[in-house]
Known about the structure:
Blueprint: H1 5-26, H2 30-42, H3 45-52, H4 56-70, E1 75-77, E2 82-84, H5 86-108, E3 115-120, H6 122-129, H7 133-139, E4 144-149, E5 163-168, E6 176-190, H8 192-198, H9 204-207, E7 211-214, H10 220-227, E8 237-240, H11 244-252, E9 257-261, H12 266-271, E10 275-276, E11 282-293, H13 302-310
Parallel strand pairs: 3-4, 3-5, 7-8, 7-9
Antiparallel strand pairs: 1-2, 5-11, 6-9, 6-10, 6-11
Helix pairs in contact: 2-3, 2-4, 2-5, 3-4
Amino acid sequence: MLSTPQTNDIILYDQIEKLLAKFMRKLPSLKGLYVFEVVSRHLNFRLAADELGVTQAAVAQQIRGLEEELGLKLFERTPRKLTMTESAYRYAISVKQAFKILEEATEILHPTQPYLTISVPPSFAAKWLLPRLNEFAETYPDLDLRVVASPKVQNFGTDGIDLAIRLAAPPFENSVNADLLFENQVVAVANPLLIEKIGHPHDSKSLQSYTLIHDAHNFWPKYLQVAFPDHDLFNSKNIYFNQTSLAIDSAIAGQGIALTCLNFVKDDLEAGRLIRLNSITLDTGSGFYLISPRKPHQPPSLPLVKSWLMNSQ
């Protein structure tokens, strides 16, 4: 029987399908493996679900499915904690390495990235980064900076993030590089016209005349212990915001006294839109860090952007 090109193609495709079927039977779900890698880092379904943007139930379902595919138990579940089995611990090391190899191989396909994506908290973007972007554009006119302003902790691998700036404190995971940009030194600020109108709050009694402006960090209890130890926070007038930038804007509008990172309000202090209530600086033990994944193939623009950020204070 004579073979034709068409017949040969059919035979070849059939062989490929058989090989793929045999190969795929040996591999568990790629999605399940990715969820397993995230859970193995956090050892907590809730934190893993937050990173993945899914529910805890969805995470648990993926892990159960992976355990069924592998035919072994990966995690020991107790009411208070989640621990990996010895087999899962060894497996997690290999899975992490496999995903890292895939990530690096994919990045090599795009060596000339014309932009850099940076993830920052919204208040950092509004009060520190945004006023400096004109200078960045003048310094690096050929480099596009993509800013993702989100309180969510981004994933370097899946979200396309090259550099993140986060309020954090050491120690950090071995998989990332972390450089301190500046410490989170908190000060009390208010509109000078408001201080002039009501009078300077020099003690707990005079502070009662002011509205205390809160953000999600809730530094007021710690600050009052240092500055006004006799002040009753629960009997104060309060305004609550979920973003520091909104608390700062509220203070500028003369609505009360806000606590904020000193670096966020330096321009407002110099321009006279705000004044410091006193010389007290609250050391929070945290800072804003430049965080990037530790890997051999980095975007060529990453060192330039990191250097510019470090020198823009």
